Amino acid sequence: MTADELAEEFRKAQYVSTDQEIKTFAQITSEDGRREFLAKFWAEIESGRMGRAGILRSVYLQRTLTADQRFHALGRAGWRTDRGRVYVLYAEPDEIERFPSSQDTKPYETWHYYSIENGVDFIFVDRSGFGEYVLVHSTKRGSFRIPIGRVSSNNRTPAGLRGSTHRCRIGYFDDRSADSWSISASVAHHDQSQDGCMSRISAKSCRPAEGG
Which one-letter DSSP state was computed for residue 72? Predict the structure, then answer.
Protein backbone atom coordinates (compact mmCIF):
# COMPACT_ATOMS: atom_id res chain seq x y z
CA MET A 1 0.00 0.00 0.00
CA THR A 2 1.17 3.54 -0.75
CA ALA A 3 1.44 6.27 1.88
CA ASP A 4 -1.82 7.78 0.59
CA GLU A 5 -3.64 4.43 0.76
CA LEU A 6 -2.42 3.95 4.32
CA ALA A 7 -3.68 7.43 5.18
CA GLU A 8 -7.09 6.61 3.69
CA GLU A 9 -7.26 3.40 5.72
CA PHE A 10 -6.56 5.28 8.94
CA ARG A 11 -9.10 7.94 7.97
CA LYS A 12 -11.73 5.23 7.80
CA ALA A 13 -10.58 3.95 11.20
CA GLN A 14 -11.31 7.28 12.86
CA TYR A 15 -14.37 5.90 14.65
CA VAL A 16 -12.16 3.65 16.79
CA SER A 17 -9.14 5.96 17.08
CA THR A 18 -8.28 8.53 19.72
CA ASP A 19 -7.66 12.23 19.20
CA GLN A 20 -4.03 11.70 20.12
CA GLU A 21 -3.65 8.94 17.54
CA ILE A 22 -5.11 11.19 14.87
CA LYS A 23 -2.64 13.95 15.77
CA THR A 24 0.26 11.50 15.81
CA PHE A 25 -0.62 9.94 12.47
CA ALA A 26 -0.94 13.37 10.85
CA GLN A 27 2.71 14.01 11.67
CA ILE A 28 3.91 10.80 9.99
CA THR A 29 4.64 11.29 6.30
CA SER A 30 6.69 8.26 5.31
CA GLU A 31 5.15 5.07 3.98
CA ASP A 32 7.15 2.89 6.39
CA GLY A 33 6.21 5.09 9.33
CA ARG A 34 2.52 4.94 8.53
CA ARG A 35 2.65 1.19 7.99
CA GLU A 36 4.36 0.67 11.36
CA PHE A 37 1.84 2.94 13.08
CA LEU A 38 -1.12 1.09 11.58
CA ALA A 39 0.30 -2.30 12.53
CA LYS A 40 0.46 -1.24 16.20
CA PHE A 41 -2.90 0.52 15.98
CA TRP A 42 -4.78 -2.49 14.59
CA ALA A 43 -3.10 -4.82 17.09
CA GLU A 44 -4.68 -2.75 19.88
CA ILE A 45 -8.06 -2.49 18.15
CA GLU A 46 -8.22 -6.22 17.49
CA SER A 47 -7.44 -7.05 21.12
CA GLY A 48 -10.05 -4.57 22.40
CA ARG A 49 -9.57 -1.39 24.39
CA MET A 50 -11.42 1.46 26.14
CA GLY A 51 -14.26 -0.88 27.00
CA ARG A 52 -14.88 -1.80 23.38
CA ALA A 53 -14.74 -5.39 22.20
CA GLY A 54 -11.99 -6.20 19.72
CA ILE A 55 -12.72 -6.09 16.00
CA LEU A 56 -10.55 -7.49 13.24
CA ARG A 57 -9.04 -5.03 10.78
CA SER A 58 -10.46 -7.03 7.87
CA VAL A 59 -13.95 -7.00 9.38
CA TYR A 60 -13.87 -3.27 10.12
CA LEU A 61 -12.66 -2.34 6.64
CA GLN A 62 -15.22 -4.66 5.02
CA ARG A 63 -17.94 -2.83 6.93
CA THR A 64 -16.74 0.49 5.51
CA LEU A 65 -17.00 -0.97 2.00
CA THR A 66 -20.51 -2.28 2.70
CA ALA A 67 -21.50 1.08 4.17
CA ASP A 68 -20.26 2.81 1.01
CA GLN A 69 -22.47 0.57 -1.09
CA ARG A 70 -25.59 0.92 1.04
CA PHE A 71 -25.60 4.37 2.64
CA HIS A 72 -23.92 6.85 0.27
CA ALA A 73 -26.00 9.99 -0.16
CA LEU A 74 -25.64 13.47 -1.64
CA GLY A 75 -22.07 12.81 -2.68
CA ARG A 76 -21.03 11.67 0.77
CA ALA A 77 -19.26 8.33 1.10
CA GLY A 78 -21.47 5.79 2.85
CA TRP A 79 -19.07 5.18 5.75
CA ARG A 80 -19.12 8.91 6.53
CA THR A 81 -22.92 9.09 6.93
CA ASP A 82 -24.63 8.57 10.28
CA ARG A 83 -26.10 5.21 9.28
CA GLY A 84 -22.74 4.18 7.86
CA ARG A 85 -20.94 5.11 11.07
CA VAL A 86 -23.35 3.12 13.23
CA TYR A 87 -23.10 0.16 10.85
CA VAL A 88 -19.29 0.25 10.90
CA LEU A 89 -19.20 0.37 14.70
CA TYR A 90 -21.99 -2.07 15.56
CA ALA A 91 -22.55 -4.17 12.41
CA GLU A 92 -25.96 -5.13 11.02
CA PRO A 93 -28.91 -4.20 13.27
CA ASP A 94 -31.07 -7.02 14.58
CA GLU A 95 -34.12 -5.19 13.27
CA ILE A 96 -34.84 -2.07 11.22
CA GLU A 97 -38.21 -0.30 11.28
CA ARG A 98 -38.75 2.02 8.33
CA PHE A 99 -41.44 4.70 8.25
CA PRO A 100 -42.33 6.75 5.15
CA SER A 101 -43.00 10.46 5.11
CA SER A 102 -46.41 11.87 5.86
CA GLN A 103 -47.97 15.31 5.70
CA ASP A 104 -46.11 16.55 8.78
CA THR A 105 -43.19 14.15 9.18
CA LYS A 106 -40.03 13.16 7.36
CA PRO A 107 -39.09 9.55 6.53
CA TYR A 108 -37.21 7.89 9.38
CA GLU A 109 -35.73 4.59 10.50
CA THR A 110 -35.26 2.96 13.88
CA TRP A 111 -32.38 0.50 14.20
CA HIS A 112 -32.61 -2.02 17.03
CA TYR A 113 -29.62 -3.86 18.49
CA TYR A 114 -30.84 -6.36 21.05
CA SER A 115 -27.48 -7.73 22.20
CA ILE A 116 -25.87 -4.37 23.06
CA GLU A 117 -26.45 -3.10 26.62
CA ASN A 118 -29.61 -5.18 26.88
CA GLY A 119 -30.96 -3.47 23.80
CA VAL A 120 -30.25 -0.08 22.20
CA ASP A 121 -31.93 1.95 19.47
CA PHE A 122 -30.75 4.46 16.89
CA ILE A 123 -33.27 6.75 15.17
CA PHE A 124 -32.38 8.36 11.83
CA VAL A 125 -34.40 11.01 9.97
CA ASP A 126 -34.16 11.89 6.28
CA ARG A 127 -34.47 15.59 6.96
CA SER A 128 -33.38 16.62 3.43
CA GLY A 129 -35.72 14.25 1.60
CA PHE A 130 -32.81 13.02 -0.54
CA GLY A 131 -31.89 9.85 1.32
CA GLU A 132 -29.31 11.16 3.79
CA TYR A 133 -30.58 9.95 7.14
CA VAL A 134 -29.32 11.92 10.14
CA LEU A 135 -29.04 10.41 13.61
CA VAL A 136 -31.43 12.25 15.93
CA HIS A 137 -31.50 9.92 18.93
CA SER A 138 -29.63 6.96 20.39
CA THR A 139 -30.12 5.04 23.62
CA LYS A 140 -26.55 3.72 23.43
CA ARG A 141 -24.59 4.95 26.45
CA GLY A 142 -21.81 7.38 25.62
CA SER A 143 -22.17 6.86 21.89
CA PHE A 144 -21.71 10.37 20.59
CA ARG A 145 -20.36 13.75 21.67
CA ILE A 146 -23.20 15.84 20.30
CA PRO A 147 -25.60 18.66 21.27
CA ILE A 148 -28.62 18.34 23.51
CA GLY A 149 -32.07 18.20 21.96
CA ARG A 150 -35.57 17.52 23.23
CA VAL A 151 -37.94 14.67 22.61
CA SER A 152 -41.47 15.41 23.79
CA SER A 153 -44.04 12.65 24.25
CA ASN A 154 -47.41 12.45 22.64
CA ASN A 155 -48.97 9.19 21.71
CA ARG A 156 -46.65 6.24 21.14
CA THR A 157 -42.94 5.79 21.69
CA PRO A 158 -40.42 3.59 19.88
CA ALA A 159 -38.75 0.81 21.87
CA GLY A 160 -36.25 2.18 24.33
CA LEU A 161 -37.89 5.60 24.58
CA ARG A 162 -41.07 4.72 26.44
CA GLY A 163 -41.99 7.20 29.11
CA SER A 164 -43.20 10.75 29.36
CA THR A 165 -40.77 13.49 28.39
CA HIS A 166 -37.17 12.66 27.51
CA ARG A 167 -34.01 14.72 27.36
CA CYS A 168 -31.73 13.07 24.87
CA ARG A 169 -28.47 13.60 23.04
CA ILE A 170 -28.94 14.18 19.35
CA GLY A 171 -26.86 15.36 16.44
CA TYR A 172 -24.78 14.66 13.39
CA PHE A 173 -21.11 13.74 13.13
CA ASP A 174 -18.77 14.51 10.26
CA ASP A 175 -15.10 13.56 10.57
CA ARG A 176 -15.16 13.61 14.39
CA SER A 177 -16.44 17.19 14.55
CA ALA A 178 -20.08 17.62 15.47
CA ASP A 179 -22.23 19.82 13.31
CA SER A 180 -24.53 21.43 15.85
CA TRP A 181 -28.18 20.93 15.08
CA SER A 182 -31.12 21.63 17.31
CA ILE A 183 -33.76 19.05 16.43
CA SER A 184 -37.24 18.99 17.89
CA ALA A 185 -38.61 15.46 17.68
CA SER A 186 -42.26 14.75 18.32
CA VAL A 187 -42.53 11.20 19.61
CA ALA A 188 -45.78 9.45 20.50
CA HIS A 189 -46.45 7.14 23.47
CA HIS A 190 -46.53 3.38 23.02
CA ASP A 191 -50.05 2.16 22.38
CA GLN A 192 -50.50 -1.31 23.86
CA SER A 193 -53.46 -1.93 21.54
CA GLN A 194 -51.28 -1.59 18.45
CA ASP A 195 -48.66 -3.99 17.16
CA GLY A 196 -45.17 -2.53 17.18
CA CYS A 197 -44.16 1.01 17.94
CA MET A 198 -44.21 4.13 15.84
CA SER A 199 -42.99 7.64 16.34
CA ARG A 200 -43.61 10.88 14.58
CA ILE A 201 -40.37 12.73 14.10
CA SER A 202 -40.59 16.21 12.69
CA ALA A 203 -37.31 17.33 11.14
CA LYS A 204 -38.77 20.58 9.87
CA SER A 205 -37.48 22.37 12.96
CA CYS A 206 -33.82 21.42 12.36
CA ARG A 207 -31.63 24.46 12.52
CA PRO A 208 -28.01 25.20 13.45
CA ALA A 209 -27.82 25.53 17.22
CA GLU A 210 -26.24 28.67 18.59
CA GLY A 211 -22.90 28.23 20.25
CA GLY A 212 -22.19 24.81 18.65
Answer: -
Q: Are residues 149 and 182 in the same domain?
A: yes
Q: Which residue range(s) make up the domain with 14?
A: 3-55
- The verdict on 127 and 179 lying in the same domain is yes
Own/partner contacts of 120-125, CB < 8 Å, gap of 24 or more, are 120/160, 121/158, 121/159, 121/160, 121/161, 122/86, 122/93, 123/158, 123/185, 123/199, 123/201, 124/82, 124/83, 125/183, 125/185, 125/201, 125/203
Q: How far apart are CA 147 and CA 34, in angstroms?
A: 34
Quickly count: other Cβ atoms within 10 Å of residue 17's Cβ: 18
Whether residue 95 sits in one domain with residue 33: no
pLDDT tens-digit readout, 141-162: 876 533 323 322 233 333 333 3
Structural domain contains residue 102: yes
In a domain, 110, yes or no: yes
How many CB atoms lie under 10 A from the CB of residue 63? 21
The total domain count for the chain is 2
What is the predicted pLDDT for the residue at 190? 29
